[in-house]
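Good morning N.,

You mentioned wanting to compare the apo and holo forms, so I went ahead and generated the holo version with 2-acetamido-2-deoxy-beta-D-glucopyranose. This is what I fed in:
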Amino acid sequence: MHTLSIMLLILAVVLFSGCYASFPHRNLTWNDINFVHTTDTHGWYSGHINQPLYHANWGDFISFTTHLRRIAHSRNQDLLLIDSGDRHDGNGLSDITSPNGLKSTPIFIKQDYDLLTIGNHELYLWENSKQEYETVVNHFQDKYVCSNVDIRLDNGLFVPLGLKYKYFTTPIRGIRVLAFGFLFDFKRFNSGTRVTPMAETIHEPWFQEALKHEVDLIIIVGHTPISHNWGEFYQVHQYLRQFFPDTIIQYFGGHSHIRDFTVFDSLSTGLQSGRYCETVGWTSVNLDKADLNLPVRQRFSRSYIDFNTDSFKYHTNLDKEFDTAKGKLVSKLIRETRKELKLDTLIGYVKTNYYVDYVPIDHPKSIFNLLALKILKTLPKSKHEERITIINTGSIRYDLYKGPYTIDSKFIVSPFENIWVNITVPKSVATKVAAKLNDADYISASRLKPPHQYDLQVQDLSTSPHQAHFDMQEKLPKGYVTHDDFGADGDDTLHRAVVNFPVPNVIQSVEINDEVDSPVNLVFYSFITPNIIWALKELNFSTEQVPTPYSDIYLGTLLNEFVANNKI
Ligand SMILES: *[C@@H]1O[C@H](CO)[C@@H](O)[C@H](O)[C@H]1NC(C)=O
Ligand SMILES: *[C@@H]1O[C@H](CO)[C@@H](O)[C@H](O)[C@H]1NC(C)=O
Ligand SMILES: *[C@@H]1O[C@H](CO)[C@@H](O)[C@H](O)[C@H]1NC(C)=O
Ligand SMILES: [Zn+2]
Ligand SMILES: [Zn+2]
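and this is what came out, ligand included:
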């Protein structure tokens, strides 16, 4: 071994043998105005109990932002805290109650947001929309901005769900801000609510009126992907530029569950801050207009902060003094709520990690492999029944991590309460349905995969120049290496890159005998009936059959029982 290699190896050991906090971090860039952004939290306020990288809870996050705000003000800078919606569905804390969010929403609103808006998950069910209006909007009042969603009151009249826009001045610099809140063109809202596409909203009279304000900065808080291939924000942007050719416009996005940052033009960027309390997004803006030609990288910065207290302490330069009184209170509230909801009730123990897409689908550590080969086969069936069971990959929400498997885990991995239905078809047809649904040319409007799979970023597996040496990389925590319009240096913690392998629309579990073309049961969630019928048609199998109820044992229940009774 060369001396240099040995020295590097020693250096690596010294650097990484200490506690978790010794992982190398990149500093935040502070500027005239700084933004802290969350999106798609989906109820993860307890933190990721089996994942140290995202271990912080909502109380820790509150302590963190309290310090960040103090630091900003001590630097004579502003700091705004923003959330882009989707606060239910995905975690036991939010989903075990009826209606869901009953206990988690009061925890969410403890954070001191300056601006927030709605996500599509607040709009599927009336009870969630009502809760959003009565709890979140009522609490935040004029900080809740919602330009294109209305709610129907008891008297039958539709009113804006929050302020249509907000015009305000920041406390430190006196920056005049005009803010809008935009949900993407979502169609499946409940009948007590109404979403107007933002492309229409911008032509409404009130919007035109709002544009008459004198502004230094425009903020768009949206539950809408910021990526270049999602047109909606770019359409709004083109329109705004007609009125504000040289005003700085900052977008905040969500919905596709990824970390992302995009350049709209030299005076405008968009930030999207991941999902599930894995990421706190950061962006800062130099508001100096003396030089309009300032390169975009000098005007804007972005960071993706891992949701753990080591990162939080690093960026606030604190250790023992980190916890604030309010932060501690909220952590206590979370502990008590978990206890009350019995979320930590142990069901079993998982010995290794099973991933949604960090490994290929046929890998032993793929959760889909586990489902197809083992768990789906435990769905009760009669003795000689032959069947093929199909699930869409989006019916799994998250990885299954090594550690205690609790009531909470089921909600995290498979929260959906879909009933199974079946239809009897010839074996030769049944065996081709999954492949048909996975055909490359099958573009589904119903989005059968997990959300982030529709926005996979190009992954560069080679060593990035920011990561010192191979030996060191081996010791880095596995996590996101985000590729965005500014490059690959946005993650606050240096990570060994996880790779998102593409997953198919559906997977199947096959339980059939030999070659004879006898009828078999095709079993699937009632939810994907239209897709199955489509595939059967494509396969030239016409049937008058209506799928019949097959089982009401949810996938989550099968998972519980499997983990309780097996070593996995
Ligand atoms: C990051 O910030 C720390 C603490 O403020 C400072 O000591 C260090 O020099 C900074 N690192 C870089 C690369 O700027
Ligand atoms: C579903 O399976 C049951 C049991 O095998 C069968 O009796 C029933 O006909 C099937 N339903 C349809 C629509 O094929
Ligand atoms: C279905 O029928 C059409 C027209 O007869 C034929 O072109 C096609 O290949 C058939 N598809 C399959 C999967 O058999
Ligand atoms: Zn979401
Ligand atoms: Zn969403």
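Residues 1-21, 459-471 have pLDDT under 50 and may be disordered.

Happy to go through it together on a call whenever suits you.

Best,
F.
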